[in-house]
Amino acid sequence: MKKSKITGVGHFLPERIVTNHELAKLMDTSDDWIRERTGISERRFFDPEKDTVANMAARASEIAIQNAGLEKKDIEFIVFATITPDYYFPGSGVLMQRELGMEGIGALDIRNACSGFIYGLSIADQYIKTGMYNNILVIGAEIQSSGLEFNDRGRNTAVIFGDGAGAVVLSASESQGGILSTHLHADGRFAEELYGKDPGSSRKERLTYEMVDGESTKPYMNGNLVFKHAIVRFEEVIKESLDKNNLQLSDLKLLIPHQANLRISNFLEQRLKLEKGIVFNNIMKYGNTTGASIPIALSEVYQENRLRENDLICLAAFGSGFTWASALIKW
Question: Is residue 125 within 8 Å of residue 5, measured between CB atoms?
């Protein structure tokens, strides 16, 4: 059976840098308050005159395709993870396909929030292992800033999120390594603890003036509960991937968690007794970019030349749903 390997990575970040000091002018917060609770110092916000979820994804994908040594015509399928699509429908996968001129190939959209990229990677892995496709683009891209509320009421979420896109090319391979296993989980009992309620189809009207003026169109997060569940599920799903492959934490060369909160990453590092430098973090610069955070981080690691052949890498995520997932990769 064929194996799937990540052969190319790329990311794109909007030009606009928004610091904590800038946000402090809009709401009752401060640089110290934000950094103490999240670890974030700045984030990127899109330019509505030129950035869309689809074209940010396209720019990240072009870099990934080039790094893979392929051409656009070699890509056979697209898996696109986002919870902030450009339109209510269709999904942004087909819009990115149009941006790249890849007419005719399939595009599948994934709406699993922070875990979306790993869910998408798992789907692409199965397509390649069964022989259906040889080269698949897997993308995570988000524009969160346009849905935030920059005042005291929205402070707890407004300081966390940022915009960006990351992409990988997953290719069929006969060599050793590649994706060793993926692990996907969910618990819908907690769906309303981290969610955006409106607009939704199960209303008499999908969107009303009352919704726009109220809080239901803004993201809601029960921060304490999310934190408590995240630190448990992260540890479980990381160990699950290692156990599945008869490996140990000491075998890990790199752990790339979803960039939700620096406190979660630091807790994981201590809890798992990992050496300094094993856990990669960039939330300080970009905030939480939801489904884009892991591919952006992976692309940065690649750019920094930190990936070596046969290195054992774990990707792990937890977020809205609740959903959580991991992928264990031999580079």
Answer: no
Query: Which amino acid is residue 206, in one-letter code?
Result: R
Residue 185 annotated in active site: no
User: Amino acid letter at 315?
Assistant: L
What are 105-141's pLDDT values in tens digits?
999 999 999 999 999 999 999 999 999 999 999 999 9
> Catalytic pick from 183, 261, 288, 314?
288
Asked about 258 being catalytic, the answer comes back as yes
For 257, the token pair is: 């968690």
**How far apart (Å, rounded) are the C-alpha atoms in residues 324 and 184?**
6
By three-state DSSP, how is residue 294 classified?
Answer: helix
* 3-12 vs 164-173, strand pairing mode: antiparallel
pLDDT band at 150 (very low <50, low <70, confident <90, very high): very high
d(CA 305, CA 139): 21
Q: Is 183 a catalytic residue?
A: no
**Amino acid identity, position 254:** L
Per DSSP, the three-state class of 79 is: strand
Q: Which residues of 20-49 are buried (b: 16+ CB within 10 A; e: fewer)?
A: beebbeebebebeebeebbbbbbbbbbeee
The lowest-confidence range among 47-56, 200-209, 278-287 is 200-209
Count CB neighbours of 123 within 10 A: 20
- Stretch 82-102: mean pLDDT: 97
Question: Which of these is catalytic: 11, 55, 112, 114?
Answer: 114
Could you give the percent of the chain with pLDDT greater than 90?
94
Q: How far apart are CA 274 and CA 279, in angstroms?
A: 8
